[in-house]
Amino acid sequence: MPAVDAQPGPFSFDLDSTALVVIDMQRDFLLPGGFGESLGNDVSQLRRTIEPLAALMAAWRAAGLPLIHTREGHKPDLSDCPPAKLNRGAPSMRIGDPGTFGRILIQGEYGHDIVDELQPIEGETVIDKPGKGAFYATELSDILEKDGIKSLVVTGVTTEVCVHTTVREANDRGYECLVLADCVGSYFPEFQQVGLKMIAAQGGIFGWVAESPSVIAAIQE
Amino acid sequence: MTAMIGPVTANPYRWPYDGSVPVSKTALICIDWQVDFCGKGGYVDSMGYDIELTRAGLPATAKLLDHVRGLGMLVIHTREGHDPDLSDLPPNKRWRSAQIGAEIGADGPCGRILVRGEPGWEIVPEVAPVAGEVIVDKPGKGAFYATNLDLVLRTHGITHIILTGITTDVCVHTTMREANDRGYECLILSDCTGATDPSNHTAALHMVTMQGGVFGCVSTSDDVIAATSEPSNRPAHHPQAD
């Protein structure tokens, strides 16, 4: 059974029951000129994850292991967007407004899709989610159960929002989560650091934290 | 007419987003004020953490409870714990608790750790439920997963949630995230929460306020109390307080 050095202790996983989850690596969040940047965020904080993640995904695919992508977004008629999410804080740009890459966070728009470097390939699962967590109001639980998945290697953006929410949901459901520090990103360095710290606190209250090269080495052994 | 709540002085916007809300559509959720998390000899104490940090929010929460009970607001208490046979305890959660010397289900000074029905699992007297209040027993950190909380909230017509409890970064945050994804408008109270690591308490509150309130808003119990009024002494849309 492969094992990697991690916080708060070694993380071992079975290749037959582990999936790689890539959260919300969408153009709206990552591309210069997109929605994320228009809110005043520094997208380079997220873009540094693309290269290590591409390497990890290549190794994961080469090993023939399951890979799941998620995308946050809403239906064009916004029927699945709670009013509180749409209107709170009187934002200058709202979900559904026209943006540089189409209507912001709307399914089917260019900006809603995954960045070119990390596009899903045939046979990989793509989960469309209306919230921050990938379990609520999606088919993710059913897919993991059907495929006998017990452990998740979690990557994507942003660390303290969608990655954290999904890891918390997964942890309550009994999945073992390994979060890869170099493959998750936050617009805010402070939250990147504390977000990772919270996962491994109290003996790993939400899971484990490691770096992607050790996972690549473990699956290539 | 019912009493109203809001706008409450809060960060990053005056809560709620829709100006004000009838108390009848608002719930106060008190998360895991259990002996195991803030009592002597409980789980958190057994792990070696300072329980004064998790007890810090008790006086303000007790005062707020007194206030909202007078208004007739729905009060919901949650308790984290597992069946005595541990059939609802994921193996990794058990393993990790054992690694840090406080295995769930093992005997401790307050009975079996985090097991339903044991003294350590009870809510501490300062904020104990009164007759008619809802209690939700949850096996995880979040109060929505594997519980009837969403059904209880929808049955009562609740759209807005005020959160107190422990710990800020773990169970309170997980529940707030779940509630937020489900469309509830959430307010977390900085003086009615607490964490085993003070820096995690601060960071968790700060996270809520980013990006226009990604999970809702942060305020204090005094600000909530000040922004609650009977219709008779308050003109519409012009709160006297704050």
TrEMBL record, chain A:
<dbReference type="InterPro" id="IPR036380">
    <property type="entry name" value="Isochorismatase-like_sf"/>
</dbReference>
<dbReference type="Pfam" id="PF00857">
    <property type="entry name" value="Isochorismatase"/>
</dbReference>
<dbReference type="InterPro" id="IPR050272">
    <property type="entry name" value="Isochorismatase-like_hydrls"/>
</dbReference>
<keyword id="KW-0378">Hydrolase</keyword>
<dbReference type="InterPro" id="IPR000868">
    <property type="entry name" value="Isochorismatase-like_dom"/>
</dbReference>
<protein>
    <recommendedName>
        <fullName>Isochorismatase-like domain-containing protein</fullName>
    </recommendedName>
</protein>
<feature type="domain" description="Isochorismatase-like">
    <location>
        <begin position="18"/>
        <end position="205"/>
    </location>
</feature>
UniProtKB/TrEMBL annotation, chain B:
<keyword id="KW-0378">Hydrolase</keyword>
<protein>
    <submittedName>
        <fullName>Isochorismatase hydrolase</fullName>
    </submittedName>
</protein>
<dbReference type="InterPro" id="IPR000868">
    <property type="entry name" value="Isochorismatase-like_dom"/>
</dbReference>
<dbReference type="InterPro" id="IPR050272">
    <property type="entry name" value="Isochorismatase-like_hydrls"/>
</dbReference>
<dbReference type="Pfam" id="PF00857">
    <property type="entry name" value="Isochorismatase"/>
</dbReference>
<feature type="domain" description="Isochorismatase-like">
    <location>
        <begin position="26"/>
        <end position="213"/>
    </location>
</feature>
<dbReference type="GO" id="GO:0016787">
    <property type="term" value="F:hydrolase activity"/>
</dbReference>
<dbReference type="InterPro" id="IPR036380">
    <property type="entry name" value="Isochorismatase-like_sf"/>
</dbReference>
